[in-house]
Amino acid sequence: MRAIRFALILTIAFSSLGACTQSSDCFSKEVFCAGLVTDTLGVEDYGVNQGAWLGLQNAKANGGVDQIAYIESVDTRDYEKNLAYFAAHGYDAIIASGIGLQDETRVVADRYVDSFFIGINQPPKKDEAARPNLIRVVFAEDQMGFVAGVLAARVSQTHIVGAVCEKSDIASMWRTCEGFRAGVKFADKNVKPLVVYRDNGDSEKLFLDENWGRAAAQDLVKRGADVIFAAGGITGQGALRAAVEAQVKAIGAERDQAAALRESNSWLITSVYGDAQFEVEKITRDLKEGNLGGQNPTQFKFLALGPKLPENLTPELSDLLAELWKGKIRTNVKNMKP
């Protein structure tokens, strides 16, 4: 089954290098260069990194960008220097893919004011001043979680479902997992959502604590949960693996987790995630045409449901996504933990 996509209108305030990273043409006003820096998951992450690269490829094919390249970060300590590399080589647009790069993106954007930076999944921090050369693409995490919660409630037989999430003081995690809780209650008030956050975990393992994710999911299964939703990078993937091993239905986030984890069985039933492909293609084209400088642009966002979505639930979830987009259904989830 093909992935389902729906537009959401929101306000957006070295493994491989392309040939133009070695060229001085990127300093020319006649040549528009765009580069992508990924997090440590690389360009083939089945999620926003891959979508961003496809968006750049589409932009180049359609004349929206003249030259493109990407850098896959090997270590988190490489983020700043990888972003700076493109800026120092005259790139007009630099895409920083993932929340893990948000601090480095701000630092480099302040240093290289003549380049535009596009932060994928990088919402502004509270009271953070806007930067005219930093464009943020932020997906509606609360709606992603909400859809996952409705799906979990529909397929649960024990009337207990669980969510394993990274730290609750990360706004995107809070919106995603409280969205899940709200979606469960919206679908069926008789289904109990158990939501656990890695609030007391090692800060050095942020988004990387697979063992904690696995143990948290196993505990939820022991408590009766027969559906596990998980979000938070490798932490979340640990929970998904535990659910599959226990033969409990699982719902992923952030990317097509069935493809990322190479799970071909029916336990990982689908994933809910943001699609960066359209965003990157549209924004880079607008930047080349001079349409976004100094503005706070509005773009279209896409949510995608993975291809393994149960066919009997496709019509309901399709309608739900449309209603969320139109604002006829609201999650009522706060932007961050109170």
CATH architecture of the largest domain: 3-Layer(aba) Sandwich
The first-to-last residue Cα distance is 39 Å
Q: Which value, in Å, is the CA radius of gyration?
A: 20 Å
Nearest-integer average pLDDT = 86
Order of strands in the sheet with most strands: 1-12-11-10-9-7-8
Descriptive key words:
338 residues; alpha/beta; Rossmann fold; 10 helices; disordered N terminus
Walk me through what this model shows.
By secondary structure, this protein is an alpha/beta fold. The chain has 2 domains: 7-139 and 275-302, Rossmann fold (3-Layer(aba) Sandwich); 141-274 and 304-326, Response regulator (Rossmann fold). Helices cover 36% and strands 21% of the residues. The protein has 10 helices and 12 strands. The strands form 2 sheets. It has a 7-stranded mixed sheet, with helices on both faces. Helix 1 (48-61) links the parallel strand 2 (33-38) and strand 3 (67-72). Helix 4 packs antiparallel against helix 10 (314-326). The radius of gyration is 20 Å and the shape is elongated. The protein starts with a strand and ends in a 12-residue tail after the last helix. The model is unreliable at 1-22 and 294-302 (pLDDT under 50).
Short description:
With 338 residues, the protein is of the alpha/beta class. It is built from ten helices and twelve strands.
